[in-house]
Amino acid sequence: MPLKEKEISVTTLRRLPVYLHYLNTIKTTRKNISSATIAAAFGLNDVQVRKDLGAVSGSGRPKTGYDVEQLIGQIEYCLGYGSETKTILVGAGNLGKALLSYRGFSDYGLNIIAAFDSSEAVVGTLINEKPVLPLGDIEVVCLNKNIKLGIITTPVEFAQETCDRLISCGIKAIWNFAPTILKAPEHVLIENENLASSLAILSKHLREGYSEENV
Amino acid sequence: MPLKEKEISVTTLRRLPVYLHYLNTIKTTRKNISSATIAAAFGLNDVQVRKDLGAVSGSGRPKTGYDVEQLIGQIEYCLGYGSETKTILVGAGNLGKALLSYRGFSDYGLNIIAAFDSSEAVVGTLINEKPVLPLGDIEVVCLNKNIKLGIITTPVEFAQETCDRLISCGIKAIWNFAPTILKAPEHVLIENENLASSLAILSKHLREGYSEENV
């Protein structure tokens, strides 16, 4: 891997999928695009966009800007979209079922190969063609399939033990949807998707944030 | 509203639901708790936890710490859990259906009263007892029910027009699940839940982040 890939910041990484989608929507109509045009499309600062794109590509050519197809290829390579990431999901409740049923993940190279749950009502069933297996099978599936990414959608009281268990099976990154803070060794990345926290921000804004508008 | 409520930072606000859940799990066994105990439970810094709790409560009493029941009440009040926030959702595809079916939202006072979609296949149906209505009904429902919060789960190419439409109906906060950056006036809060961005972070870590561990 070229050294510069390591230098991409988390905030840049969060914006790249957004740029990528935009570039894919315009690629049939445009051959080149400037960072200023992309910046304007998203209401972002041009300098920021140039910095983001500079991390995956060279700088755009004066006047013509970036070659759209080439830039798409470079972002996709950076995001690893060509490769497939196999993952498992623990906790096939409402949210887990929702993620299992979501067909958008394959666009990003994510393939949930199995789900795990303790409930007899759901173990043995298929959700969107993915098998729901008993918790006891976690170790054998992770090790045999060399799984490195796990999704946690368990009730919050089981989230930490699930996290520990996945790490002991060689998992290196966890996408956590349980509303808690998970403890993990430094080499394991925990990405939190805390819906309750998002709701707290929104709800606070509604009760106070725009009050200057109201009488 | 007391002035101090306005001073709560976004990062504190994101942690409050996490503390709240923890306090609810221990309230039957403990009357008091110190910030240090809470900090240890989540691997956080004690000073940080004390600052967070100080924003919604006074400081804990020396030796005994915080009264658990009282602290629960104060956090719930701050997060507005006693009140109900009515919301609508636009885009009843896989992800939209998933959110409509998720029963955890009511814990946070969120009530999705209706969904909207353009597809004849889904309009007229009920998802988790919530009606799916045609897009043309957005205005009348928002205005009649005085809706201030909207959830966007449309395909990305319709996200901005949906956002504009909701704002014109008086919506003040938007929970956006479409992988794009929405433009909105300053008084409208956009909270992004970008699954593609989260996946980019996780995938990058898997390909590079823990390489020092491997041979």
**Helical content band of chain A:** 40-55%
> What is the total tally of β strands of chain A?
9
> Poorly predicted ranges of chain A (pLDDT <50, ≥5 residues)?
1-6, 211-215
Largest interface, with Cβ-Cβ < 8 Å? A-B, 71 and 71 residues
Q: Which sequence of strands runs across the widest sheet of chain A?
A: 5-6-4-3-7-8-9
Entry summary:
With 215 residues, the first copy, chain A, is of the alpha/beta class. Chain A has helices at 10-26, 35-42, 46-56, 68-79, 94-101, 138-145, 159-168, 195-209; strands at residues 32-33, 66-67, 85-90, 110-117, 126-127, 130-134, 149-152, 173-176, 189-192. The longest helix of chain A is centred in the N-terminal third of the chain and has 17 residues, at 10-26.
